[in-house]
Write a structure and sequence with these properties.
Structural class: alpha+beta
Distance between the termini: 145 Å
Domain Brix: 28-245
Number of strands: 12
Region (Disordered): 238-267, 293-356
Biased composition (Basic and acidic residues): 238-250
Protein name: Ribosome production factor 2 homolog
Subcellular location: Nucleus, Nucleolus
CATH class of the domain at 26-239: Alpha Beta
Number of helices: 8
Length: 356
């Protein structure tokens, strides 16, 4: 580990502040380290790979005796010294020829790493027709094969390449900046082939440039892909997964970047907002309901004790029809009494005439 240095000047303090943890981290820098047994082919391969990562790269020219799977202390020292989160180590021997070791760091400690051996049928940028693109543009990625979403080793490969060529994160989108595509393909072996069941499929690394032409449809150009190189076929070697506790810390999002959650508002799986509306206490006595006879106050039950005092039969229950009939009969009786009084008053003059 590098000893802690107390800043003696403002310049040193600014340099140390750049290495401190930030809410929004800087773009990851890739460090290319040649191993003790590196060769010219690996040098040319790393030069082509670093051209897609520019300007966030650093290169070592001197060979270093580093064995990452046995002792990664030197890589951790290089990472902290150069403030680099990504390291590519090159080595070549009889057992693992043209070997590239991709290493990711977290807090200047090894997070995970994987070995990718380049087969001899590789082609460099100089072997293709010269079709350049601007430095610093972010590539588009295409992963062909279901193994990149199912197999843990290929998930690691996918995550490693996406993190390696991510570049500077930005919310601005410009179609003119989409100039090249990086494709990674993996063909699953036949399940009936016993010789290939224990072997992982190869990873085919290809780079294409987008070329647009006029089409018959307006405002929709015809897009074609032309390979510009480099072309690599990777064979997967040793790999190391991250520690669960370290992985939990690495994927933790700062509180300042976490989205502020509104009270009683959630988002479902389809991205729609689902909210809860709380209504105050309602006075049901003032609730407007349908005007019907059964809701009149005279039909309310006064006390529960009155119901318990005496039992009643079904014959004692008066239906609404019978109740209406009784009201109608009572009304007719009242009217009949009024009519009889009128008739008596009308008959009195006739009786007087007869007497006369």
């Amino acid at each position: 580990m590098i000893r802690t240095v107390k800043p003696k000047s403002a310049r040193t303090k600014r340099a140390l502040d750049k290495k401190l943890p930030k809410i929004v981290e800087n773009t990851k820098t890739a460090l290319f380290v040649p191993g003790q047994t590196s060769n010219k082919a690996l040098h040319d391969i790393t030069v082509d790979l670093s051209s897609f990562k520019k300007p966030y790269i650093k290169r070592f020219t001197k060979k270093n005796d580093v064995l990452p799977f046995e002792d990664a202390s030197k890589l951790e020292f290089f990472s902290e010294k150069n403030d680099a989160s990504l390291i590519v180590l090159t080595n070549s021997n009889k057992k693992r020829p043209n070997n590239l070791t991709f290493v990711r760091m977290f807090n200047f400690k090894v997070f995970d790493m994987i070995e990718l051996q380049v087969l001899n049928n590789f082609k460099l940028l100089s072997d293709f027709k010269k079709l350049t693109f601007q430095v610093g543009l972010k590539p588009m990625f295409v992963f062909n094969g279901p193994v990149f979403d199912s197999h843990p080793v290929f998930k690691l490969v996918k995550s490693m390449f996406l993190d390696f060529f991510r570049g500077e994160e930005s919310k601005l989108q410009d179609v003119s900046g989409l100039q090249h595509v990086i494709t990674l393909s993996a063909i699953e072996s036949d399940d009936h082939d016993e010789s290939s069941m224990s072997k992982l499929p190869l990873v085919y690394f290809r780079v294409y440039k987008l070329k647009t032409y006029k089409s018959q449809e307006p405002k929709l150009p015809r897009v074609e892909l032309e390979e510009i190189g480099p072309r690599f076929d990777f064979k997967i070697g040793r790999h190391q997964y991250p520690d669960p506790e370290t992985e939990k810390d690495a994927y933790q999002v700062p509180k300042q970047l976490q989205p502020s959650q509104k009270k009683n508002v959630d988002v479902d799986s389809m991205g729609d907002k689902v909210a809860k509306v709380h209504v105050g206490l309602q006075d049901l006595s003032r609730l407007q309901t349908r005007k019907m006879k059964g809701l009149k106050s005279k039909y309310d039950q006064i006390n529960d004790d009155d119901d318990d005092e005496g039992e009643y039969d079904d014959n004692d229950i008066i239906s609404d029809d019978e109740d209406e009939t009784r009201d109608f009969v009572d009304a007719n009786e009242d009217l009949s009494g009024v009519d009889s009084d009128i008739e008596d008053e009308a008959d009195e003059p006739s009786k007087k005439k007869r007497k006369n």
